[in-house]
Amino acid sequence: MSFFNTISRSMTRGQRAPKRATTPTPTTPSPSSMAPPSPVPPSPSPPIPKPLYLSSPFVEAALVKGNFKTIVMLPKYVDIMEWVAMNIFDFYTNLNEFYGVVTECCTQQSCLTMSAGPTLSYTWINQERKSVHLPAPTYIDYVMTWIQNLLNDEATFPTKSGHDFPQSFPSTVKHVYRQLLRVFAHIYHAHFHQILHLRSEPHFNSLFAHFLAFGREYELLDMKDVRGSSASPVGVGQLWEKWRDMGILEG
Ligand SMILES: [Zn+2]
To answer: Is 130 within a domain?
Structure first.
């Protein structure tokens, strides 16, 4: 375990008050048991216009130019688990800040479901093991609280030297990654105009491209979660394809 990273990570963590600590922990099962997205039956509606995030110049807007492969590579002498833990902590923290910015527009009324495409809304498994639609703010609050609690849990994300990462660490971080992807997917699908209004699209695109590149590099991300099914595609699946074609991401 890298001394530097252990120190820097625990310092960063110490500085940030848990943003969602006041939110009650959901009593529903952890998202690790969540079902795959359930497709909403397609209705015969007029063709959907191309989303703004897939349109020029927004699709190209990024702070980091070039291929993201180089910034996700494991630095020399850094433990891979520590590298993954650190990056997940950063993705979570940054995404939480972006969601904080759009949160007043993501309400029980505006976002009745956890939508991520014209025919896709993710479902949550409730205590009765039933797959249910939750308003997006509720779903996101459950997910972010769950991740915050994991990050604060020394047994899951150890920060002290001498504490090893648990055997379950790879599968835990895959679940975390899948849920973070859903939050990105909802913001792109439902709130990209607010991101544009704040002129934050270069930041948000860079964060998401970094997240995708990192997830592919360390096999934390399944492409079927990025693309969705043909009946209910994930909106950001097309974004991934565009960026791959532009040479920003690897295939
Ligand atoms: Zn929303």
So the answer is: yes
Number of domains forming the structure of the chain: 1
- Sequence-distant (≥ 6) Cβ neighbours of residue 146 within 8 angstroms: 25, 26, 30, 31, 179
CA of 120 to the centre of ligand 1 (A): 13
CA-closest candidate to residue 72, choices 206, 223, 181: 206
DSSP state of 228: B
105 in a known ligand binding site: no
Stretch 21-50: mean pLDDT: 55
> Is 198's pLDDT higher than 80?
yes
CATH number, position 242: 1.20.140.30
Ligand 1 centroid to residue 99 C-alpha, Å: 9
User: Which residues form the domain of 101?
Assistant: 67-246
Q: Taking a C-beta distance cutoff of 8 angstroms, is the pair 213, 250 a contact?
A: yes
- CA–CA distance, 111 with 202 (Å, rounded to integer): 24
Q: What is the pLDDT of residues 124-175, one digit of tens each?
A: 988 899 999 999 999 999 999 999 999 999 999 998 877 889 999 999 999 9
**Does residue 2 lie within any of the structural domains?**
no
Sign (positive/negative) of CA torsion 30, 148, 112, 179? negative
Task: Determine whether the annotation assigns residue 210 to a binding site.
Answer: no
| Eight-state DSSP code of residue 132 | E
Residue 20 domain flag: no
